[in-house]
Amino acid sequence: MEINENVGDDITTLLFTLSHFLSANEGKSTWIIDLIAEKNGLFNIKKNYFLVLTKQKRFQQAQDNLSNFCKDKKIETPKILNAELTLTEEGADRSTLTIKSNYSIEELACELGSIVKKYKNELFNFNQQINDLKNLAIKVLEAFAQIAELNLSQLRLSEIKAEKTYFSGIPDLVQYEVDFAASGSQLIYPNPLEMSEDHVTYIMRNKEKNPFAISSKVLPNIDQVLLQYRYYYFIYLFHEIFHCFQTLNNQSDPNNGWSFEHDASFISSIMMLHASKLGTHESKKYFKPGKTEETMLFLADEGISTHNFLLKENGDEYLKGYEKWRESFGYEKPVSQDSFSFAESNIRVLDYYKIRITSEAYIEYYNLCQIKDGEVKFF
Ligand SMILES: [Zn+2]
Question: What is the full DSSP assignment across 307-374?
């Protein structure tokens, strides 16, 4: 494996970590287990990823890969390569992650931002990423089928084609063009490198839910969108491939889309975890140790901010609906509308439902595994 392969994900890791420090005070970031939301995996993920960053040395590994990339490109050594992460245990429910550097978080992020700007086409090959992850997702589905002694060969999963969304330039279509879609043997994905200003403005409309808390002074919106989609691809690709499977398998959804959404969300993070352990070239290229935890933290950040937003705006109405949906394993609708018309005016709530079920499935499954010598081991 080439050492520089996929260094775009390493830079994303570094910037994501810095954005966590920026959102906290004075370069310190803390996690707190929310005892009230005991069943809420969103909060536990935070703890796991902080441990991965330090104990599994994800941050250091990303620094090493970036260092090789910079030598290769003859880029002056970025300041972040001398920064150090430390974790302080302060008690059973709280830890602090600190970054030690002679420079401010903004200075460190600014420099990384300029590398992203200059090399974005080389660092983020989204078409390649989607095709590689698609192949991994199909391999995982086939592995699951083998365990369940199912024969999927008649579904011809290997014929699923990934196609880029056509950006029409029509303002009313922007909200549909930024999403993924899948059915049968077709998967449609947006390529953020080709997005217009309208797409970027739409994606960044809820500033407070943006897990990249790096201000636009450090990194313009368009580049923040690139980093966000790097994570969206990791998780939503598995979700969409499962929709392909559902339709190719002629499944029907008596629950107007809600069962389909539940199942695709529930299984996506478990599929991603398995993909990270396949040991193939593609698996090692994308899933460096700690990558699934990091992706889930990205999602959990988005989920937690919407969770708090909904509580403030609507009380617990939508959250109660979520629990009904989850406890019935997708058989009961969380709201009275079907999932498609609900999405039209409540896309943020629907995204929250999907994120939360994805995160909770991940954490339950993750807890069945054990972390040993910096590696996740399955029982
Ligand atoms: Zn879906």
Answer: HHHHHHHHTTHHHHHHHHHHHTTTSS-SSSS-HHHHHHHHHHHHHHHHHHHHHHHHHHHHTTSEEETT
